[in-house]
Write a sequence for this structure.
């Protein structure tokens, strides 16, 4: 028997799927406290629990969230929350890209690869 979903479940799934690049899998039928949605976007994956404006986690959901060792489950209550989630995911991707670029630049400089770059410059540019 399929698990009951909150009234706004379909609306939130539809809003997520309208964002280019977002994939959404409903996990609602799994029950046993498992979050409702698996959302992928720009290389990130988040678990989402859909709740109405005043909805609360039941005991099984609270237990599942407490035992889960991955990233925290995101609770979404409205289509406005979808926009907030996508904004946060974009910020996370941007931060990861900056950290990766800084790490690559640091490793490149430390490994001596910078010398190849300097050798290609006219002498007056790096003396």
């Amino acid at each position: 028997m399929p698990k009951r979903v909150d009234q706004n479940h379909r609306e939130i799934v539809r809003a997520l799927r309208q964002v280019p690049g977002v994939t959404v899998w409903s996990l609602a039928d799994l029950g046993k406290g498992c979050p409702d949605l698996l959302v992928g976007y720009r290389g990130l994956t988040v678990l989402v629990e859909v709740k109405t404006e005043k909805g609360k986690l039941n005991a099984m959901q609270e237990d599942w969230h407490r035992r889960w060792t991955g990233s925290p489950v995101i609770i979404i209550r409205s289509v406005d929350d979808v926009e907030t989630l996508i904004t946060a995911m974009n910020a996370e991707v941007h931060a990861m890209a900056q950290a990766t670029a800084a790490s690559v630049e640091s490793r490149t400089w430390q490994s001596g690869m910078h010398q190849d770059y300097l050798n290609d410059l006219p002498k007056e540019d790096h003396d």
About this structure: The beta strands are 23-26, 37-41, 44-50, 74-76. The radius of gyration is 22 Å. Residues 33 and 58 are 8 Å apart (CA to CA). The chain is about 45% helix and 15% strand.
